[in-house]
Amino acid sequence: MVNDDAELVARVRAGSPDAYTELVRHNQQQVFSILHRYERDIHLVEDLAQETFLKAWRAFGSFDSRAPFQHWLSRIAVRVALDHIRRRKRLSGTISLPELGEDSVAWLRDELPPRELQGRQAREILDLAMQSLSPAEQVVITLMEIEGRSVKEICSLTGDSSVAVRVRAMRARTKLRKAIEKLEASEHE
Amino acid sequence: MNDKKLGRLFAAARQETPPTVPTGFAERVQRGLNPAERSAPVVSFVDQLNRNFVRYAVAAAAMIMICVAVEIGQSFSHESSIDDDVNQICSDWMLH
After folding, report:
1. What is the C-alpha separation between A124 and A169, in angstroms, rounded?
2. Is the ipTM of this complex over 0.90?
3. Class of the A97-189 domain?
4. What is the CA angle A36-A86-A184, rounded to 5?
5. Check: CATH 3.30.9.10 for A1-95?
6. Using CB atoms, which residue from A15, A123, A148 is nearest to B40?
């Protein structure tokens, strides 16, 4: 049993496709964790994860081992997520928005104690509010505020400059505040 | 909506547990590859060039430095200077 990504990468380069299956097993949970921040449907997350690993296989020749394999794979996963959000945004006219659950509505109305909000409910509210953000803004604010990544890490994952990341994060926060205020107002009616 | 409330929303979203990976996912990825792709990943010439770029750059710089060192060494041994060489070239190319 080989546990080291670098060793598995070397075996894949030597022509062992089985080593790639092992590499997928090593990194699949991390890829699912990244992608589920952008998509709630588990079947779609699985499709996106498969797309990520297939893209990684096809681009394997460009992996130069200067950074860890996991980091290179995360960059591909973030790009796949960004493409997915863009596609979803194009189709958003034909897809109905998910309705908020009772607890989420109660929290928006300040009827729920602040600490009572669960992860799933917070996600419901954020998913609705994020509809007003551009795909790039959604990715930046998710990486920064939900995954807790630094500006430097986000630059490395998205390929954007630090100025672009900071500006997008600031715009995203402003838009989110406005969108949630709208939701609050509509839920009070 | 104040910053505090937005912060609480992000903090709660952070607590959401990621989904567990379905059994056999890695095999599904393997099946997703075309038969032609399954043998080994394709490494193009550009990929190889890109991967070895630093080595090529160092080798090229070393070669240039060796050439310059040899040139300087030769110029000392022949007791000539670069000025003489430039004058020689000028006279060869411009006066004839």
Report:
1. 20
2. no
3. mainly alpha
4. 70
5. no
6. A15
